[in-house]
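Changelog-adjacent note: as of this version, every example in the card shows the full chain rather than a window. The one below runs 138 residues end to end.
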Amino acid sequence: MSHKNSQVKAPLNNDVLAIGISPEAFTPEELASMDLTAEKLAARIEGGWAAIEATGIVGEMCGVSKDPDEAEAEIRRRFAERSFGLATIGSGVRLVPENTVLFERIVNVLVDLQPGIRLSFVTGPENMLEAIRRWLDR
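Full-length structure tokens:
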């Protein structure tokens, strides 16, 4: 599935900001419930990003805290350095009910900083490239 037939305008540029909760922000108990360690999660994220970079897509990984204020500050710092046409938001942010305020804050900060930014949602590091291509390959 893609957005090829959408009347929504394409991203302003092809630079991607991939936002997700930093592996270090999870407690050992949270990671254990997912059968992960911080190191295993970091390796999955790095592997997903390496696959993206191998295609020539330009962008940055943006690991954030679960604290909405800290996450907002990190995202604002990234946008102070450059603009992004597309942001992906990871499943740890959007699918965990306790992170609803964090998810809302991230979406609203992105829209505030870059009107016209396109958002794409991932279910795990392994499908980040697919999520990005839904907007860039149109």
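Structural remarks: Residues 24 and 102 are 16 Å apart (CA to CA).
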